[in-house]
Amino acid sequence: MSTSTTQTEQEFSGWRKVLWPIHAHEIKKFLPMGIMMFCILFIYTVLRDTKDAVLVNAPGSGAECLAFAKGIGVTLSAVLFMVLYTKAANIFKREGLFYVTALPFLIFFGLFPYFIYPYVDSMHMSLETIQSYQATFPNAKWIVPLVGNWTYTLFYILSELWGSAVLSLLFWQFANAITPVKEARRFYGMFGFVGNFGLLLSGPMIIYVTNYIHSMGLGRSESTGLMLKYLMAFVILAGIVLLSTFYWMNRRVLVDKRYYDPEAMGEKKKKAKLSLTESFKYIMRSPYIGLIALLVLSYGISINLFEGIWKGQIKIAYPTEVEYNRVMGGLSTVTGGFAVILMLVGSNLLRRFSWKTCAIITPAVLLTGVLIFFGVIYYNNNLVPEGMNIVSALKGGMVQKELIVFAVFVGLAVNAFGKAVKYSLFDPTKEMAYIPLDQELKVKGKAAVDVIGGRGGKSLGSYTQMGLLTVFSGSALYQLVPIIAPIVLGIVVIWLISVLGLSKRFVALTTAQAEPEKKEATPEEAAAKAAEEKPASSAAEISS
Length: 544
Hints:
It contains 22 helices and no strands. By secondary structure, it is mainly alpha-helical. The protein has one domain (29-260, 275-543): MFS general substrate transporter like domains (Growth Hormone, Chain: A, Up-down Bundle), CATH 1.20.1250.20.
C-alpha cells in the first residue's frame, strides 16, 4: 500500500481510530473484501443452522449422530477435498481456483430443495427399517440413520465443508495474498466487523422464515421443504454477490499497484509447483505450520465437545426441524450482535497489544463459558432418578421443561459469545500468522491446516464422543459431562501452550523481515516505525 501504517495511524484519532481506521483511498480495496466476508458468513450461518436442524431431526436420528457424521463423513470428505484442492492449485491460477472451489457447493445447495428433498421418501430408508437395523446392530445405532437418510448426511457434510473451504481457505488465502502485515493489523479485525453483519441479517431472517412457515399450519414434511426452499434461495443470492464481487476486485482493484503489489507481497519469484506428496512433506517439515494446526485442532475439539451436548438439549426441548432452526436463528442473531461489538474491540486490541495477548483471549473465554454450561447440565442430570433418562423424566413430570430450556439458552449464550470472540480475535490472529510465510506454505500449508486441521479438530472431538458413546452404550452425551469436562480442560491447556510457542516464532519472522526495511530507512523513519511496532512485539518477545 502506498501509505504506511505509521502515517495512517497519525491521521486517525478519537472515535475514528476506534470505529473506522480505514483511509479514504483504501475503501476501494477494503469494502469489497468486507462484502465478500459478509456473503460468506451469511451463507455459512444459514447452512450451519439448517444442516443441524435437518440431520438431528431426521427419522431415527438425534444429536449423537452429529459426532459420527463429523468423525466419519466430514473427515473423509475433507481429506478428499484436500487432495482435489491441492491438485487444482497446481492447475488453476488464484482467481480460477476460487471459482472451481466455491461453485460446486452453491450448485448443490441450489438443487437440494427442488430436486432432492421432494424425493427423499423414495431415496431414504423408512423409519421402521432404520429402527430394525438399529436393533440388529446396536453398536452402529447412530450410524444407521446417516446411511438411511443419506441425502441429509450429504447436505450436512457439504455445509460443514463450506466454512473450511470458502471462509477459512479461499477468503483468508486471498486476503493474505493481497494484504501486507501493516495493513492486516487494521484491516483484518474490520473485515470481521463488516462481515459479521451477515450473522445479524441471517439470524432474524431464519427466525422470520421459520415463524412464517409455522403460522401456516403445514405438515412437518411440507414445512421443512418450504423452509429449505426459502433459505437456499437466500444462499444462492448471497453466492452470486460473493462471486461477482470477487470478479470485480480482480479486474478493478488488483490491477492497481496502490492496492496490490505482487513484488512487495513476495510473489516476484515464482517457485516450481510441488506435487501432492512433496507438498505434504514440505508442510510436515514446518514446526510453524504445526503450531498453527494445533490452535485450529484445539478449537475444533473443544467447541465440538460442547456443541454435541448443547444440540442434544435443543432436540429435547424443540423436537421439530422448524422449531430447532428457530433456536439456531436466535444463536446467529445473538452471535452477530456480540461479534459486531467485539470486532470493534478486537480490531483495536490487534493494533494496541501483542499477537500473543490477542491470541490467548479466545481459549480463556471459551473455557470459562463451557465449564459454566457443563455445570448447568450436571445440575439437571442430578434431578433425574437413577435408571431413567432426561426425556422420560421430562414426560413423567420429574424434570421441568423450563430447566432444559434454561440449559439451551445458557448454551446459546456461551456459544454465541465464544464464536464472536473467535471471529474477532482467533481468526484474525491465526490469519496474521500466515503472512510472514513463503508463498508455498501460504497456499498449501494453509490448505492443510484449515481443511484437514479444521475438520480434523472437529473430527477428533467427534471421535471422542463416538468412543464414549460406544463404551458407555445406552448413554446420551449429556450424561457424560463428568468425563467430557476434564477432556476439554486438557485440550485448552494444549491450546495455550501452542499460542506461546507460535508467538515466539511469529515475532522472530516478522522482525527478520523488517530488518532490511529498517536498514534502508532514515533514522527518523526507523524511530517512528519502532515506536509504532512496540505494542505489537515487546522487547521480551523479540529477545526470546
